[in-house]
Design goal:
By secondary structure, the chain is an alpha/beta fold. The chain folds into three domains: 103 residues, 3-Layer(aba) Sandwich (Glutaredoxin), CATH 3.40.30.10; 65 residues; 89 residues, Tetratricopeptide repeat domain (Serine Threonine Protein Phosphatase 5, Tetratricopeptide repeat). The chain has 14 helices and five strands. The protein has a five-stranded mixed sheet with strand order 1-3-2-4-5, with helices on both faces. Helix 12 packs parallel to helix 14. The longest helix has 17 residues. It holds the Pfam family TPR_19.
Length: 287
């Protein structure tokens, strides 16, 4: 494919200006390739077409590693093809090998704003403020303008949950596009919805605590109390109850204590002290 404003060959002489400096204006996808590399020759035309498809939101920079060995060494290139994405002056992500187009698009969509992202952000703000009708209108507008944005489906699940239909929201999660199946946001939302379902018809926290005070083996009360604590953000107390449930009654709702702990881990930052502490406690108790 001929060169265009969205595809350029770079060398050591212009790498700084094109890739490093240029990535402050738009993401730059750097394709490290060699003529002897058959997968490279398969991947390059597809990357060039994607650069055109993204309509100026992405620059493809091609580096011939046979001619630019110093550049390849500088960026730790050990296998070909290697494709790195630069943004705001640094490499922020990469993939290796000739991935299929669907996976490359998924890779790019994690970093390149879509036309509908602004509407999606506005809709999420409206959901947070409780204006669900206006949020629905914006999501419908975004879907009409950009039906390929898979994150709109996730926003619709959140809207369904906000409207109180937890069962339908859980079904909506199961129907999300395959590229979102392992998304950390999906895992966190799934856990939140399961706790919401568990707490939906439960008694007040004070009543559940009273049941536990009377009978520490009341697994249902312990799980429902943990769910209520999760929903109001008291993750430490919730994890303690779930840990106790795991130790006391693995048979309750198919190991709900252990699975509940894992769900809370998904809802928290992996570097959170609570996650480290209770993951260690869980492993020690199990093994």
């Amino acid at each position: 494919m001929s060169q265009s404003t969205n595809v350029i060959t770079v060398t050591a002489a212009n790498f700084q200006s094109v890739v490093i400096d240029g990535s402050f204006a738009r993401p730059v996808l750097v394709d490290f390739w060699a003529d002897w590399c058959a997968p490279c020759r398969m991947l390059m035309p597809m990357l060039a077409q994607l650069a055109e498809d993204y309509g100026g939101k992405l620059l493809l920079a091609k580096v011939n590693t046979e001619e630019e060995q110093a550049l390849a060494a500088q960026f730790g290139i050990r296998s070909l093809p290697t494709v790195q994405l630069f943004k705001d002056g640094k490499a922020i992500d990469q993939f290796m090998g000739a991935l299929p187009e669907s996976q490359v698009r998924e890779f790019l969509d994690r970093h390149i704003p879509r036309a509908s992202d602004g509407l999606l952000t506005q809709a999420q703000a409206l959901m947070a403020s409780g204006d669900l009708a206006a949020a629905r209108d914006l999501l419908e507008q975004a879907k009409a303008e950009d039906p390929g944005n898979g994150r709109l489906a996730l926003a619709e699940v959140r809207l369904t949950a906000a409207q109180g239909d937890i069962t339908k929201a859980l079904s909506g999660l199961d129907a999300l596009p395959i590229d979102l199946a392992n998304d950390p946001e999906v895992a966190a939302l799934r856990g939140q919805l399961r706790f919401a379902s568990a707490a939906a018809d439960a008694a007040l926290e004070s009543e559940l605590q009273a049941r536990l005070d009377a009978d520490a083996k009341d697994s249902e009360a312990r799980y429902q109390l943990a769910a209520a604590l999760v929903l109001r953000g008291d993750y430490a107390s919730a994890l303690e109850h779930l840990f106790e449930l795991m130790k006391r009654d693995r048979a309750f709702q198919d190991d709900a204590g252990r699975k509940g702990m894992l769900a809370v881990f998904d809802m928290l930052d992996s570097n959170d002290d609570l996650v480290a502490r209770y993951r260690a406690k869980m492993m020690n108790a199990l093994y």
